[in-house]
Amino acid sequence: MNKNQNISMAISLTVVALMVGSAEILREKEIIFPEITAVAMGGLIAPVQSWNTSRTRLFAAIVSAAVIGVCIVKLTTEILVLKIALGLLAAVGIITLSKTSFVPAISACILPILMDTKSQIYVVSVALMTSIILLSQKILEHLGLHEKYEFSPVKPNLQLLKLRAIQIMTALVICILPANFHEIFFIAPPLIVAFFELSNKGSKLIKRKYTLVLLIAAAAFTGAFTRFFISEKFGLTLTLGAIISSAVIFALCRKCKLYFPPCCAISTLPFMIPQLAIVKFPFEVTVGYIILTLAAVMIQKYNSKLE
């Protein structure tokens, strides 16, 4: 398994290099899609695929969410929290209608809203990078180097719809203050994805919530440190910093035997933010994740009482 994971990690790091390198060469930050490292973790590096979805539905969900996110920025209100609300409703709707559990689609939709991205280059990058990961997954499966996942459609019953409504409302309440003061790292898209993962009914991740806090913090500080020292202080490329940051988190997840895709996206996010925001990034991300984790624990307790 270690050999197979090494191959998967090498492919994933190559995708990171391609993505960030293209953004640097073309001077288009919209090409950087941090959630692709999460897709790589959940679809390639994890021994078993992290989400209940097929490749076709995963691709359709993440690209549709990206398109809607950009359209919300272009066509709707200037009030950030309302745009976030529209994004959450749209993304969760896509996940529900696709009958999957692929919650990273939320990040694909919310990221352009928080970053005020209006360029279709973002959508093209999401589609292209996701295609590379999914094609790599298919090839590895064909070669017997990755376990195949048998997709089983998630039927949107009343219980699931109630849970989704509670998750959306809770996330929105938490988003109000950060959105109002534009301190968006408290509600970085991968953190919202993590919240949905943790608060899902029967989530096993909630049992390792303390380890996950440490992983998210490690990812945030690793990403910020490598961006600051490698790419800014030493004047080396963003690409090198992103590769090092991703490699550290991939290895750390494997060491902990906890393949948590959102922490991988967090480690890549610092490479698309303004330089002046690097210092506060890891602190706000860590605090934001702790708040969202507490909210997820409360939802899990509420779910338990209903059973």
Task: Compose a concise summary of this entry.
The protein has 307 residues and is mainly alpha-helical. The protein is built from twelve helices and no strands.
Question: Would you write up a description of this structure?
Answer:
The protein is mainly α and 307 residues long. 72% of the residues lie in helices and 0% in strands. The protein contains twelve helices and no strands. It has helices at 2-26, 35-45, 55-75, 80-97, 104-115, 121-142, 158-180, 189-199, 209-233, 238-256, 261-268, 281-306. α8 runs parallel beside α12. It is globular and about 50 Å long. The protein starts with a helix and ends with a helix.
Annotation keywords:
single chain; 307 residues; mainly alpha; 12 helices; 72% helix; 0% strand; globular
Point out poorly predicted stretches.
none
Q: What is the H/E order?
A: HHHHHHHHHHHH
Report the radius of gyration as a whole number of Å: 18 Å
Profile the largest sheet. Answer: none
What's the tally of helices?
12
Helix content: over 70%
Ends: how far apart? 38 Å
What's the rounded overall pLDDT mean?
Answer: 95
Structural class: mainly alpha
| Approximate strand percentage | under 5%
Report the count of strand segments: 0
Shape: globular
Itemize the secondary structure elements and their pairings.
Blueprint: H1 2-26, H2 35-45, H3 55-75, H4 80-97, H5 104-115, H6 121-142, H7 158-180, H8 189-199, H9 209-233, H10 238-256, H11 261-268, H12 281-306
